Every structure is written in structure tokens, then in C-alpha cells.
Amino acid sequence: MTRDVNDAWVECACGARHWGRQGAAGLALADEGALVLQHRSARSHHGGTWGLPGGAVQHGESSLAAALREAQEETSLPPSAARPHATIVLDHGTWRYTTVLAHASVPRPRVRPVDWESDDVAWVAQEEIAERELLPAFADAWPTIRRLLQARPLLVVDAANVVGSVPDGWWRDRAGAATRLLASIRSASRGGFPAAWFALEGAVLAWPRIVVVLEGAARGACEPATDDTAPTHRPAFRTPQVLRAERDGDTAVADLLGGLPPLEREHAALVTADRGLRARTAGTRHLGPGTFRSALRTLEG
Ligand SMILES: [Zn+2]
């Protein structure tokens, strides 16, 4: 296990002691109605209870990276076995705990206890979780985690409208402009988007399924490479999907949104400023290209 100056107790404003000077993070990895839980060893804080693998965030590390590193140290799970879904943050001001929710990228990846902190780690059926003796903080968070794991956030991007929102000469090379937008979305999406865009109540960040709709000459854009051959130390990020409209882009977007299953429709967001398309997709959350572009810049930077 790696040691760091942040592996230390914090006397918190709430009156309790918490682990991790820069806060802590844990991983809630789900697959087929089960979750990976850690049976905490008697020597650890709240020994004997079941909770999520996790630990102190280290210097310069994101909460996502910390949760995946700790999960690997405690359960041998490679980061590539997790597809990030959303984060929940418990913020005490002086200390914060981030739960990273993720879905398994392969069926039930194997887990086993690998350090002194765990007596056991196992896939536990979600119906059985509430019956176990749980770490109190995890027991509090579990209903929210369970609800959020069901949600299917979706981001649909009207590429023509986003590309057209800045007069940078895109009309000279529509396919090139769309290729740049796709690359930018792919790279920014790894950092996660604001969960509020998708009405994911209780979450801070979300990693949605992304569909970028291209029309006309922009349909010649190059698709971002898939992450199929990504190294095992990196999470399994979703590659944005590209939908090349057969007719006009607006019809493709409206058809896509109209055909979604309820769990996805409820958490869909469409990026467009086009009034006609907004009217055709009433009932869906809409984001302006300015908001979207500024989020891309922040996330890429
Ligand atoms: Zn506290």
C-alpha cells in the first residue's frame, strides 16, 4: 500500500475524526444487481462492518483516481474494470468523502482481499446489503447510491448548432470542425459532466452516454478512436457515439429522444439553442452551446 502525508486523521468541524487530510474517496462498483463490498478487518475503524473499498485522497489526485487506486489496493480490481457513472460528495467543510459510482465494464470482475484492511471483499446482492452490519456512513448513503445506479444519464449534442455558435471559419470545413468537436467532447467527458444537467438528484458529477448528431457535410467527420485497447490502469470510459443523420439532424435528434426507455428519457439533456428543435423536443432538458463549450474548456484544461 502506498503511503502519503495525506494518510492521516482529520479532527473535523463535525466533532468526528475522519481519515484523509485531503478527504477520502470510495468505489461503489455495480454489476447485475450486486455491489462490491469490503468486510472491514477488526483492526480498522468500524472493524467488522461492511462498506465500500476506499481511502485517503493523495496529493494531486482526483477523487475518481483515488477511489480506483484504493479499490485496486484493497480488492485487486484493475481500474479498467470500472466504467465511471456518477459521484456523490459528503462535504463537512473541513473534510469530504466522494463516492464514485461505477458499472463493471466486464461481467463480475473478480475481487479478493489483498491487504490488512479487509477480512473479505465480495460481490453482494443489492437486496441483501441492508441486512448486513454496515459501516454507518455507507448505510446512510446506500439508498442514494442504489437510486443513482438505476439512472441512465444521456447527453445528446446537436453538433451543427454547437459548431455554428462560434464564427471560427467552420463553414469552410464542416467535417473538420465536427471532428474537432468530437475530439474535444471525448477528452472532456473523461472528467465527468455536472450531474445537475441530467437531473441526477444527490450526485455531483455524471458520466453519461453521449450521442453526437451530425448532419450534411459534417457527416464526414472522423470518429474518436474507441478505448477498447486502453491500459488497465485507466477506467473504462465510454466513447461518445456518433449518429450520422440520414436526413436532417433535427429529425434524427427528435427520433432518438422520442424512442428512449423511461430511465434514460428522464435523465436526458440536449445541447442546442435551435428554437425549432427545442420546441420539437419539449420535455427534455436543454443546454445552450455556450454553457456546453465552457464546460468542455474547463474539463479539458
Ligand atoms: Zn466531519
From TrEMBL:
Keywords: Hydrolase. Coiled coil: none annotated. Residues 20-149 form the Nudix hydrolase domain. InterPro entries: NUDIX_hydrolase-like_dom_sf, NUDIX_hydrolase_dom. One of its GO terms (molecular function) is hydrolase activity. Its cofactor is Mg(2+). The keyword Nucleotide-binding does not apply. The keyword Zinc does not apply. Residues 47-83 are annotated as: Disordered. PANTHER family: 8-OXO-DGTP DIPHOSPHATASE-RELATED (PTHR43046:SF2), GDP-MANNOSE MANNOSYL HYDROLASE (PTHR43046). This is ADP-ribose pyrophosphatase YjhB (NUDIX family). It comes from Serinibacter salmoneus.
